[in-house]
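Lab manual, section 2.4: Encoding a predicted structure.

Procedure: take the sequence of the chain (183 residues), apply the prediction step described in section 2.3, and record the output as structure tokens. A sample record is shown.
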Amino acid sequence: MQGSRTDAGAMLLAEQAAPGLTGTGSDGGFSFQVFADLGANLGRVARALADEQARKQRAWRQIRPIPGIPAGQLTAASTFLNQPELAGPRSGYWWDVHLIVAATFTGGSVNVFRSAGGTVQPDIMLVGGFPSSGYLTYGKAQLMIAPGQSLVFGSSSTFTGTANISLASVTEIASAAVPDYLL
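Recorded output:
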């Protein structure tokens, strides 16, 4: 009596199976354990890639560009423009300032200070200066402003005209994402 075609196919496959794939590996061939280890390693790699993708997506949600912030005007000699709500990050965030513009003044100079607090007089932390109307550019992480800090603009004693000041390019970074941003 003849068996079914399924039984015959299974027997043919069993007869043609390569030696060593039976799970023993004693004859120098691959064992099932090698394939199991390979599958486990591929699973770990897939999880690591998914975790890295999730980390990048979290960082992307926590880092955003701000295209332009008008900080105000300097109109008199030897004065300071201190607008912490416009020239500094909100609580829990850092700023990476890339481009500052001081335009339309006719004489003297404008200095840019990093201030740590709401006082009118900035800290002695000069971060840039405008000998005439123009712009200052900073690369990534060259002008970082921490939470509680802001930029303050001061005019020289020979200042004339009106300086229209803006932070033309800023990247806002959630404090938790600063390490990822700096990599």
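Check your result against the sample. The helical segments are 5-16, 32-62, 178-182.
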